[in-house]
Amino acid sequence: MTHGLAVGFGSLRCGPSVSSSSATIHRTLVAPPRRSLRICSSTFPPPPAPAIEGRDVSLSVTTRRGRVLPVLKGCSLLVPPGQLWMLLGPNGCGKSTLLKVLAGFQNPTAGTVYINRPCSYVFQNPDHQVVMPTVGSDVAFGLGKLKLPLDEVRLRVSKSLDAVGMLSYSQRPIQTLSGGQKQRVAIAGALAEASKVLLLDELTTFLDEHDQIGVINAVRDSVAADGEVAALWVTHRLEELKYADGAIYMEDGQIIIQGDVSTISKFIKKKQDGGSEMPFG
Length: 281
Known about the structure:
Structural class: alpha/beta
CATH class: Alpha Beta
């Protein structure tokens, strides 16, 4: 189902569901003779299941001459709910391809993908994502397939536009918006459909600095406010990393490292200081 080009997917689970159970920890403290003390077991709640998970995801393509070329090589990743993560790496390393595999646009050659539903994909060119004449009608367009009462549609449109800072633009003609504002409208459409996962492919590529910050703040604030929505943002801009909760770094079709922003930033800086070529941009 399509809102502009923000695509709402059904289940994309390709394997058994991921389950986790609470962990019980037992510790024994030994005191002086005749005075041993045993601490009773404590049960901790399990961590939330990841909103996005890939296990050993690989993808190969066959050329016209029959040569098999690996594009993705055993990629494994986890993105928790309620967080904005970034997927970055040099140009041509497979970032956008991995995002398309997670979205279901391409089937992996091997491996499995688990992703919460509904899931929406927002493309990098804002002019390819909006189809209706006004902001409000464009956000409402994607809700038609849900056959919701009119009051519910209005509520969802208002709530999602407010989440991305565009509520006052609801009657504004689409053609009067900047590129960043159009991107926010596309994101609002995904939020209106109650998407649990946002897959975002280089949204700031065609935007000026002001719109870049506006779009990334809209995504970050929406994810934080909801608490259940996860966003995976593909970017070639290292300066955007500071807005994320976590990050995944790729090279040559492989995930090299993933973790918190501080860890990834230090890793990239070490590579740069070591003279490694990092052809971002």
